[in-house]
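RETRY 2/3 - previous attempt timed out on the joint model. Re-submitting the same 228-residue input unchanged.
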Amino acid sequence: DTAVSQTPKYLVTQMGNDKSIKCEQNLGHDTMYWYKQDSKKFLKIMFSYNNKELIINETVPNRFSPKSPDKAHLNLHINSLELGDSAVYFCASSQGVQSTDTQYFGPGTRLTVL
Amino acid sequence: GDSVTQMEGPVTLSEEAFLTINCTYTATGYPSLFWYVQYPGEGLQLLLKATKADDKGSNKGFEATYRKETTSFHLEKGSVQVSDSAVYFCALRMIKAAGNKLTFGGGTRVLVKP
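RETRY 2/3 succeeded.
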């Protein structure tokens, strides 16, 4: 069984469009994250939700809006896509926010903006 | 702010060679330290971790020791296999950081040739 899943795996779209990436975890975790990995493989956190509440927002443009309908899902909606948004987006989850809580990552969504 | 610096890759090795990937960190307190591995086309997986000075994390033949005096967490493996070809990320997490936030290094690509 897949622990953290993301859809779609690949997403190709035009500049200016609005798109969403979905993430689901079946681990019963309380905390979920979105990370962005750029073309140079540099990985940086974007958002974190704990029990459906936003707890980390790392100076991400407000075109990016995460939504957590329940603890098992954290979706990422992006408005007015720009070329610089092209990257691989990883969802992750952990039991909680303690330092002993390991983060488990999804397989990633490769977003290409043309 | 907190940061992680890794040696730049790619690192190309022959099978059964010794692998070392250097990682140093800058932090205002005492972080937990991690190595994650990303195999081609997959998400990140936790490889090993250490939560306090002088701890040694180990898994799948890889080892890393938390060195507070040199603020380092170098990854080593005595005899690599082709299947170890991947991108390796060093990361830290502050014990009291809000939201269980991970700060990653830039990643080191390792290519093991038969």
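Residues 90 and 108 of chain A are 4 Å apart (CA to CA). Closing ticket.
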